[in-house]
Design brief:
By secondary structure, the chain is an alpha/beta fold. Helix content is about 25%, strand content about 15%. It has nine helices and seven strands, in the order E-H-E-H-E-E-H-E-H-E-E-H-H-H-H-H. It has a seven-stranded mixed sheet with strand order 3-2-1-4-5-7-6, sandwiched between helices. Strand 1, helix 1 and strand 2 form a beta-alpha-beta unit. It starts with a strand and ends in a 14-residue tail after the last helix.
Length: about 300
């Protein structure tokens, strides 16, 4: 029996991690698969990575463009849709303004436009855990728009470390299935991953010297000094409480990122992605390799 492929469209596609998993997947009975149809992102290097790994023979299917300028009506028909709409407005890091943030808050509506235009059989959407409490009932408003577009939803906060991923990454994933289809989505069990070692030490071991983006980063002397007096797992504010922390390395400005970034602790699972983990993933995925600047692609 020939395999039936769902044609996947993506907005805010990123470097292609979701698409990579999608095109490698198939149904248990082997009758269904997923193939790339089109994707769009505003960052040029991100689009380069996507083209290189997902659709090298069809580079024009990846559109480098601000979603607000994207001609949605001119895109090819799709059966499946995915979009991780920008989290800037919903994360604590982004000041939790929600839809009120005029630059990013309303960008989820472009995914709704795709649903209303193409009526794919199913879709998935992803965002940070903070979306539930951002703004004034913003999450409810977004979910209502998805339901009104004709979809029944399964909404769940997934914790990556519970699925064997060496990262403390918690994300809401919304699975929408068209209301006319007699199909139910069930949340995957975490049981098969209970005994997996997800420490940073395991994630980073055995990286070959010629791995992509494996160049040694040049650090300023002041940065090196701060790191030398920071214990594994600490951020700079915690490190400054250490009794032997030198005065010359102290900082005064309370930048939000200074609370997030921590010195790598090899014995535990990391909270945030780092370029080092990106390197390990590029090796683990075999043929998946990033292009250009990594920073914006994380």
């Amino acid at each position: 029996m020939a395999v039936k492929y769902f044609r996947l469209g993506e907005l805010f596609c990123g470097p292609g991690g979701l698409a990579y998993g999608a095109i490698l997947s198939e149904s248990k009975n082997g009758q269904y698969g997923i193939k790339h149809e089109w994707a769009s992102d505003y960052d040029e290097d991100t689009c380069k990575t996507y083209r290189k790994n997902i659709c090298p023979d069809n580079p024009d299917s990846v559109i480098h463009m601000d979603v607000r300028d994207l001609p949605i009506d001119e895109l090819k028909p799709i059966d499946a849709f995915a979009y991780g709409f920008p989290c800037n407005s919903f994360s604590i890091q982004g000041k939790h303004k929600g839809i009120e943030n005029k630059e990013f808050g309303g960008l989820y509506v472009y995914g709704i436009k795709v649903l209303e235009k193409f009526h794919p059989k199913w879709f998935i959407a992803e965002n940070v855990s903070g979306i539930r409490t951002a703004g004034s009932k913003d999450f409810h408003r977004i979910l209502s728009a998805m339901r009104n577009a004709g979809y029944k939803l399964n909404v769940h906060l997934y914790k990556a470390e519970e699925y064997g991923v060496p990262q403390l990454r918690h994300r809401y994933i919304i699975v929408g299935i068209r209301k006319d289809l007699d199909v139910e989505f069930k949340i995957p069990s975490t049981e098969p991953y209970k005994n997996i070692d997800i420490s940073s030490r395991t994630a980073l071991k055995d990286i070959p010297a010629d791995a992509d983006n494996n160049e040694q980063k040049k650090l300023r002397e002041r940065v090196i000094g701060k790191l030398l007096h920071t214990l594994p797992g600490q951020n700079i504010w915690q490190a400054m409480k250490n009794p032997d922390f030198p005065d010359e390395y102290r900082i005064k400005e309370n930048y939000s990122f200074s609370q997030i970034y921590r010195k790598l602790d090899l014995l535990v699972c990391q909270t945030y992605v780092t370029p080092y983990l990106m390197k390990s993933w590029s090796v683990s995925f075999g043929d998946f390799h990033p292009s250009g600047r990594i920073g914006k692609q994380l």
